[in-house]
Design brief:
heterodimer, A: alpha+beta, 5-stranded antiparallel sheet, 3 helices, globular, B: alpha+beta, 6-stranded antiparallel sheet, two-stranded antiparallel sheet, 18% helix
């Protein structure tokens, strides 16, 4: 939450060009989306701002990459690259059903647990 | 050598174009905020997010860049010229490498703020974004504020 708060307070031109801060509406939507899709034991995401008040939530683990581009409320481009996916990954445009993302994150969590167990 | 003025529409707005005065071997610089660097477990290091090579929205939205040869012809060092705001970093591409991805490299001066400003237009699919990240040269590593 603190990261989202920081991104909503960025100064215009934070990117070296003319990008505005992440919009409050996008940040709020992102927070609610994470609340509904993210299992408790999922790795913490990284959140980066976009050029138009948008933002992207991403995970880059050994097992897979997941990127959720919040273009606006109910307008999310979800992409995943994993060993089982096609060469360029799989992508979906999502509005208010994040079941796919919840599944991805559950797989990611399971893979992380398995990796820790085998390393122990 | 200065570039010919870019094409404009009836309202005077610059339209997406591929400028013939920007040669394939010319450097195209993309400023990258430290906010756009992410940690990747696979390489156990930080790298630019795909958001770093995402265009802005809108009918003529493209990816803002700085044209290296214009900066140098004006007598500036591109590695220090682009350091606005502080802590910024930059990626560098060859114009030809961008065109190979189906993108257009254009001239879009912003007077007086940035007369060396360019724009890259086209379809920035996930495949293209990932390709751009793989061919980008880390021109300036961003310094993170303490």
């Amino acid at each position: 939450m603190s990261r989202l708060g920081e991104l909503c307070k960025l100064e215009d031109g934070w990117d070296g060009y003319c990008a505005p801060a992440v919009s409050f509406f996008n940040a709020t939507f992102a927070l609610n989306m994470l609340g509904s899709a993210c299992p408790m034991d999922a790795p913490a995401p990284q959140i980066v701002p976009g050029p138009d008040g948008d933002l992207q939530i991403e995970w880059h683990t050994a097992a897979m990459d997941i990127e959720l581009h919040v273009i606006g409320p109910y307008d999310v481009h979800a992409w995943r690259l994993s060993a089982t996916a096609a060469e360029d990954g799989e992508e979906f445009h999502l509005t208010n059903d994040f079941t796919i993302v919840a599944g991805w994150l559950a797989e990611m969590s399971e893979a992380a647990i398995a990796a820790r167990s085998s390393a122990a | 050598m200065p570039l010919d003025p870019p094409p404009r529409d009836a309202n005077g707005e610059i339209v997406p174009h591929d400028h013939p005065g920007i040669g394939d071997g010319e450097g195209v610089i993309r400023r990258i905020s430290p906010l756009l660097w992410v940690y990747d477990e696979k390489i156990q290091a930080e790298r630019p997010s795909s958001m770093a090579v995402k265009p802005s929205s809108g009918p003529n939205g493209g990816m803002s860049v700085d044209l290296q040869h214009l900066i140098e012809e004006a007598g500036h060092d591109p590695k220090t010229f682009i350091l606005t705001p502080p802590y910024i970093g930059a990626l560098r591409f060859l114009a030809g490498a961008l065109r190979e991805q189906g993108l257009k490299v254009g001239y879009e001066p912003i007077i007086p703020a940035n007369p060396f400003h360019g724009e890259v237009w086209g379809t920035f699919s996930k495949k293209v974004q990932n390709k751009l990240l793989s061919i980008a040269e880390i021109f300036v590593v961003p310094n993170k504020p303490k």
